[in-house]
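--- STAGE predict ---
source: upstream dedup step, 1 unique chain passed
mode: sequence only
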Amino acid sequence: MSAKKTIKRLLDLADIKIDGTRPWDIQVHNPKLYKRVLSGGSLALGEAYMDGWWDCKALDQFFFKILRLKIDKEVIGIKSFIIPYLKTKLFNLQKLKSHHIGEWHYDIGNELYTKMLDKNMQYSCGYWKKAKNLDEAQEDKIDLICKKLQLKKGETLLDIGCGWGGLMRHAAKKYGVKCVGVTVSKEQAKYAKEICKGLPVDVRIQDYRELNEKFDKIVSVGMVEHVGYKNYKEYLQVASGCLKDEGLFLLHTIGANKTTKAPTDPWIDKYIFPNGKVPSIRQLMKPSEKLFVLEDIHSFGAYYDNTLMAWKENFEKAWPKIKKNYDERFYRMWKYYLLMCAGSFRARKNQLWQIVFSKKGVLGVYDSIR
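--- STAGE serialize ---
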């Protein structure tokens, strides 16, 4: 069977047509696409899109259909998978290159993120239970975190992987807590220091493994995805060591449905989040057993679809103003990234969890706020 017929057969299963007229159909501009994808899998598919070999009006719908039926498993692309797999098995890349993600992804320009994200610069899933727009969803998310942590005036809060500082600013202003935030991104630290000026907030460029202080409460949002399965135990040990005996620790993370040591998607690994790894619930719970008591798990991964589509809309609106700093290939890469991820969460391939731990167990009943 020819490469084109093979690809067509797989796409037919998802009701996707080659050169069709519906938004989720693909338009092929280079006939070499089929062999490229069969040999290179998801990495080749993404790179071919970046190269302009194919288009799709609604990439989010395309990926939703592909991932919901797990058709991506039919085209692995051994060449693009084996090298990342071996690197993951042989090396502890998250420890060897702990600052690489900051330089590669988060330092590409604050202008891009200020245009794409909400007013609080939250680069993680929003909480859309009552929200009508991105600003409300992210405001509700960070306030939900503060309430789950039961923050009180005068307490100390550690934010591991503090991003651009929006959560700490909110916690300091509304709840009167003193904050310490650590990040490996120079651009994030610069921005966070600026927006938190005048507040009891200390922003540091620091690896989480270097922390050795005690805090009343700890939060970590969208950080553990960069830690790697070889380091989950150490990461949780650091959090436990920094948490006071009566404290609470909230972990906000993307979650995998299945436990695996395999690397992340090859295209995402190469172009978006190098050395990233989405944890399963088992991978987080097992090393936490001797360190924490589990108080609450809240799953709302479906809201990441809303969040990513809002980011994509903001990115498209901002592109005419920011494109001077990038090129057309970056534009296609970034759009592909946002919409592929939206389709993935819509298909429920990935999840989103907020997990609350205590050190010894909350006396009485922990209030599971929703």
